[in-house]
Give the backbone structure.
Amino acid sequence: MANDTLLTLADIQAARARIAAYVKRTPVLTSDVLDAAADARLFFKCENLQHIGAFKARGAANAVFSLSDAEAKKGVATHSSGNHGSAVARAAALRGVPAYIVMPEGVAKPKAEQVERLGGRITYCEPTLAAREAATAKIVARTGAAMVHPYDNRKVMAGQGTAALELLEDTPPLDLVLCPIGGGGLISGAATAVKALSPATRFIGVEPAGADDAARSFEAHRLIPLTHADTMADGLRASLSPDTFAHIAARVDAIATVSEPGIAAAMRALWEGLKIVVEPSAAVPYAAIREGKVEVRGLKVGIVLTGGNVDLDKLPW
Amino acid sequence: MANDTLLTLADIQAARARIAAYVKRTPVLTSDVLDAAADARLFFKCENLQHIGAFKARGAANAVFSLSDAEAKKGVATHSSGNHGSAVARAAALRGVPAYIVMPEGVAKPKAEQVERLGGRITYCEPTLAAREAATAKIVARTGAAMVHPYDNRKVMAGQGTAALELLEDTPPLDLVLCPIGGGGLISGAATAVKALSPATRFIGVEPAGADDAARSFEAHRLIPLTHADTMADGLRASLSPDTFAHIAARVDAIATVSEPGIAAAMRALWEGLKIVVEPSAAVPYAAIREGKVEVRGLKVGIVLTGGNVDLDKLPW
């Protein structure tokens, strides 16, 4: 896919204006203790403090508020392991239209409860991508709802990228930005914003070794779908789409992978160092620093902490 | 004690200028979920996100940087169950002078580790106020260090009050401010700031029923020292001093008390609702809302979340 068909900075700036009233400008937090441990200056963009506890509020709001009134009134539909479902339910409620959310059986309880609290109508399905897509297609066929894919959607990708716009505004010039990779929506938008506004900043994506489709695809220069995910980072079990892979190939400098114990240790270190609750998926970039998979010594590093929806009865330590 | 001998707004503004370079301007966080549960608008001043994970960084910095060079070079000493000890160690390190910290045996491990990491020299003693004071007096006699009492110190009280200055600046006009009461340093400074800048705002202190010296003293119009503390809120086991009681009597509108299960439930609700880590002491004001001890319906309420130093292996749920 040619570069000139990818997302542009203008898309992300338009998203920002569209969703400004519906999302929080989350703080960027720092910790002397974590800086000393890494011998770097780390700037954490705290999207766990976003509405619904995750950056997903951004992309969903951009997608839902991009619909025409005629489209919107039939409602919106999506499938999600959790945070995106909440985000779509919330955006639909703000717009006053129905939200149909397909979730895999066994999804973390707080995530399902949040969707319900926001008025989303949940349909449970088998925990496979095929089952999710089939269930969602059925709902779309019946209701005429607009599909808001969790990541394979340009409005969603652009919305997620607004987090990176804010990160750059609230930090000194960054040498490096790290963000996790699930389906690739966040990294596509964020890397677009960073490379447009600060071309000298390196951008590295990080994913669990147990869901390393981005790393393998990046190395092979072609999309290698994820067939099996084995990671506690439940937000990162999705497989890249051709479109998100095209953005990663064009705009990301490298991909690192991290171990499961590394994710748990990083998660705990963030809780203790920053005094915030982050979910395993959000801890993945910091795990790369702790495991030495990314060299940060002496650098100013921006890190997107993607979400904080975790079951407090099931902590990995 | 006459009102004109109490702390003034000018003391707190002076503290703010003195410590500006050494403390964080912490964010004020909100949550739609917590607002809906309380039918109020709640503004949480997140001092758990402060340096050393607690508002105590403010008061200690003000006290240590108020010393003359001649005084400071002999070092500073204090006794503390944790956060104040870290705060004094940090302020002393910033000023380049020694810090002697007396801590009770059995103090939460992360708190002692933090003091050590900051270069504080710890002396352990029996977990009684008398033992703490004796051990500290001995160190002061030997070294000539300046005593920085955790709360019975006007510079400490004024420094803690700077958190309330920022809270008022970052919120719409508040109907009510809530903060926890331990030894009374924070509430003395905070109520001074709030009553000077926003006289119509009610100010309510909250403490555990198992350490209710402030409630009993407030009702009796005389200081009734705490002889026995029974609460998980380890930061609130201290007994008011005559000076902090004088500030409370003059500037606080009411005192509420909360139960131990209420503190644990409030703590968990804050973790889940705000995605931040707060320690039991910090959850005490929110517990008063949840337990119906303070009426907040329809109000704009500022709440100081005092700290986030908690042992993740010993959570109360």
